[in-house]
Design brief:
Largest sheet: 2 strands, antiparallel
Order of helices and strands: EHEHHHH
Strand content: under 5%
Radius of gyration: 19 Å
Strand order of the largest sheet: 1-2
Helix content: 40-55%
Length: about 130
């Protein structure tokens, strides 16, 4: 059994203030004694406020063509298939995807895989599960 690191809330708020965020711990980060646990595990509750509403996250500004290429590539088996459907070259698809990934990284929401990009497209409203 490993020990969980516990930091008093006032210390985490001070550290958060230096980082520039609100410092208010998410409900799942608080133990019964009101102390924050820094586990580093991503959960859906990481993105919820105390009332259960989704928090806003930074959404990169993707051009209409970037969205079109992203969705075309997500629907295709390969970059070559997406390129053929979009009447562009496979290297152009790669360039668009690299720029999209860079934009997501710039806002702190890395998307290194196709699955991550699908999740980001769903989260940001570029597509829906009904479409797939």
């Amino acid at each position: 059994m490993t020990a969980i690191s516990r930091v008093p809330i006032h210390l985490t708020r001070d550290a958060a203030a230096r980082r520039g965020d609100s410092g208010v711990p998410a409900p799942h980060d608080l133990a019964a004694d009101g102390v924050r646990s820094d586990r580093g595990v991503a959960r859906i509750s990481d993105h919820r406020n105390y009332d259960g509403a989704m928090t806003s996250h930074r959404r990169p500004v993707l051009s209409a063509r970037e969205v079109e290429v992203l969705l075309g590539w997500l629907a295709a088996e390969s970059k070559e298939d997406a390129a053929a459907a979009l009447f562009i070259s496979a290297s152009t698809v790669s360039t668009h995807l690299a720029r999209i990934r860079a934009k997501y990284s710039a806002v702190g929401r890395d998307a290194p895989t196709k699955t991550h990009l699908l999740a980001r497209a769903l989260q940001d409203g570029y597509t829906s599960l009904d479409r797939w």
